[in-house]
Amino acid sequence: MSSALLISILAILAVFSWPALLVLVIVNYNYRKHRLQHEERMAAISKGLPIIEPTVPAKSRNPYIWPLVLIALGLALVIGNILADEIEDIGWGLVPMFIGGALLTAQLLAHNKKKDKAADADIKAVTGHNLGKAIDDAKAN
Predict the structure, then answer these.
(1) How many Cβ atoms sit within 10 Å of the Cβ of residue 52?
(2) How confident is the model at residue 17, as a pLDDT?
C-alpha cells in the first residue's frame, strides 16, 4: 500500500472518527453524572434523609427576538437587492447590521417590560392595589 493511499485513508478516518468520539465522551459524561445523582438519592432514601431537589433558575425568555430577527433579515435582503446595482456586496453586509439592530431592539423591549413589572410590583407593595391591572381594566371600558 502506498503512503499516499494510507495518508488519505487515515485522514478520512480522522475526520469522521473525531465527532463520533466527541459524542461518546459527552454521552459517557452525562451517564456517569446521572448515575452518581441516582446513587446519591438512593443513599439518602436508605438513610431516611430528605431529598433536596436542586433549584435551577428559570431562563428569562424574550418573545421579541425571533420575530425581530426574521423581519430584520428580510429587510436586509430586500434593501440589499434594491441597492445591489448601485453598490456591490452591500446585501450581505446589511444582514448582520440589521440582525444586530433587531437583537438590540428586542433587548430594550424586554428590559422595558421588566422595568414596568418591577414598577407595578413596587406600587402594589406600597398601595396594596395592582395599578397595572386597574389601568388595563380602565382602557378596556
Answers:
(1) 8
(2) 87
H helix count then E strand count, the chain: 4, 0
C-alpha cell at 89: 456586496
Domain borders along the chain are 1-56, 65-140
Report how far residue 13's alpha carbon sits from residue 118's, in angstroms, rounded to the nearest whole number. 57
DSSP for 98-139 reads HHHHHHHHHHHHHHHHHHHHHHHHHHHHHHSS-HHHHHHHHH
Q: What predicted TM-score, i.e. pTM, was given to this entire model?
A: 0.44
Name residue 19's amino acid: P
The whole-angstrom separation of Cα 45 and Cα 97 is 55
Residues 6 or more apart whose CB falls under 8 angstroms from that of 129 comprise: 123
- The grid cell for 6 is 494510507
Q: Mean pLDDT by 10-residue block, N- to C-terminus, for the chain (141 residues)? A: 85 86 94 94 90 77 84 86 77 82 87 70 64 62 60
